[in-house]
From TrEMBL:
The modification 4-aspartylphosphate is found at D55. Residues 152-217 form the HTH luxR-type domain. Keywords: DNA-binding, Phosphoprotein, Transcription, Transcription regulation. SUPFAM superfamilies: C-terminal effector domain of the bipartite response regulators, CheY-like. One of its GO terms (molecular function) is DNA binding. The keyword ATP-binding does not apply. Gene3D superfamilies: 3.40.50.2300. It comes from the Bacteria. Pfam families: GerE (PF00196), Response_reg (PF00072). It comes from Streptomyces africanus. Residues 4-122 form the Response regulatory domain. This is DNA-binding NarL/FixJ family response regulator.
Length: 226
């Protein structure tokens, strides 16, 4: 199955470079290009790509605003957003995750890492670059945006005990294989629990499941180190 990608970046040369790289892969295809956030939203609604590769700083509507609009659109529930930006700051990571992004990479990544990232996000997994450290992400997620509220713990009521266990370990950054080893389960069983939790919580992907885990208090962030 071909993964359909929409490119959103205000630099035409970068878009051209990404297009050549992505179209060189048999399982990836660029279906459209946007030079700003508003155009990205318009073209995503027209083409329904699997992934939008989104820059943050663009003229007019920025990438974070566009990401929030795309992720809030029920008609685009199958489209995921992978943020790719030069400005890999903790605040941007937190805003991107709150907006609904499934992944976050710096523009200094290698070509292989970018291609692997697209495939990872397309499969429904969360993707965070090494520069976006776990402790910083979790601390920022604990502080809700000014216009939002923490999700109530009651939201987890429909989850089984095992689904909560698996969800908590996933929120701590464990892979399915690591969770399977910790709980003496098979990786396939872990994946099943993850998907059931996502379905019950109406989470579009693993990244959103992690956000819910912290916002409901299922997982607590480690205190900042000095």
């Amino acid at each position: 199955m071909t993964i359909r990608v929409l490119l959103a970046d205000d630099q035409a040369l970068l878009r051209a470079t990404f297009r050549i790289l992505i179209d060189s892969c048999a399982d990836l295809e660029v279906v459209a290009e946007a030079s700003d956030g508003a155009e990205a939203v318009e073209l995503t609604r027209a083409h329904h790509p699997d992934i939008v590769l989104m820059d943050i700083r663009m003229p007019g509507t920025d990438g974070l605003t566009a990401t929030a609009q795309l992720c809030a659109d029920p008609d685009l529930s199958a489209t995921r957003v992978l943020i790719l930006t030069t400005f890999e700051t903790e605040d941007y990571v937190a805003q991107a995750l709150r907006a609904g992004a499934s992944g976050f990479l710096g523009k200094d990544v290698t070509a292989d890492t970018l291609l692997a990232g697209l495939r990872t996000v397309a499969s429904g997994e969360a993707l965070l670059s090494p520069g976006a450290t776990r402790s910083l992400i979790t601390r920022f997620l604990l502080a809700p945006a000014p216009d939002s509220h923490l999700a109530p713990p009651e939201r987890l009521a429909d989850l089984t005990v095992r689904e909560r266990e698996v969800m908590a370990l996933a929120a701590e950054g464990r892979s399915n294989t690591e969770i399977a080893e910790d709980l003496t389960l098979s990786p396939l069983t872990v994946r099943t629990h993850i998907h059931r939790a996502m379905t019950k919580l109406n989470a579009r992907d693993r990244a959103q499941l992690v956000v819910i885990a912290y916002q409901t208090g299922l997982v607590r962030a480690a205190p900042p180190t000095v």
